[in-house]
Input
Amino acid sequence: MRTIELIAPCHFGLEAVLKREIIDLGYEVSAVEDGRVTFIGDWEAVCRANVFLRTAERVLLKVGEFRASSFDELFEGTKKIPWEEYVPVDGKFWVAKAASVKSALFSPSDIQSIMKKAMVERMKARYHKEWFEESGASYPVRVFLMKDVVTVGIDASGVSLHKRGYRHLSGKAPITETLAAALIMLTPWKKDRVLVDPFCGSGTFPIEAAMMAANIAPGMDREFTAEGWTNLIPRKTWYEAVDEAGELADYNVEVDIQGYDVDPEVIKVARKNAEDAGVSSLIHLQQRPVSELRHPKKYGFVITNPPYGERLEEKEALPGLYREFGEAFRGLSDWSAYMITSYEDAERYFGRRADKNRKIYNGMIKAYFYQFMGPKPPRRSQNAG
Output
């Protein structure tokens, strides 16, 4: 099968998490850059990456890379790409998004327009047509310019991969599914350890953790743009990827994953989302304030996205809320806590400096992932039990 290069964009600062996922899926990583990981695969990899990757925003088929500091160079570079190898005569093709950083060409609309014209010229010469109806499958193009290097990919995912299909409803200021999954992967949490989110909102952290514990592939129940690329990928290849995901899922796994929120309406939303994700039996969700955060077991994890004071709460309420959170957490024996927040005084009112923190962008909001490490549990004796 033909070897191709694929690009998986991700949240800035979480490239290492996605790289590990891609390697675990069995593919060779060829480049790691800010906000994206490039890897080598085949047409089957397009299907498996879309179905299995938890932390990628989308999967792009890389079709070209060249330097361009003028629109003439952009036009000629785009025209040299063998579009006819990817887009059939009836294919719908357009530049869906253009982004530019530290490059001479910076206007997204101009970049999109010039590239579309170049694509049409190439297709006219190869297909001997003057007009394209574009009535067939979609081949949306995404382009990224960095220091005048133009990277061109065709979007195989369509709707962003953070849309798993389970979150039809969300609370205020939700965290995306891909970001939640990546943050969980940054912690040492495993399915045999307790996990509690005391600000669970629409349930994204508990749901993503439950899906990981049950080995449920995030893309099992959704559609992808590349499913229409029958000129490149047989339908059978998609069915095989979904069948593989179905065989790996374990819905009978035993876990202790809990989510609380003070808002009863938000808890109703979280329960519906958990049900739609197929993990409602694996999560305990209840209305409960953070002051009542407690658990009898040791060595558990709190992973949460507390209010920032952006839209969810007024800033004046935050000191008391974080103080309550810190006091409740200190009552948990040997636990670890991980929280993502943009609130600058989070550590002060939580009552402890983080052992580590990592800058993360939650949408356009600059936040920090604070990590308060508890002790590791003692190793189990080989003769135990």
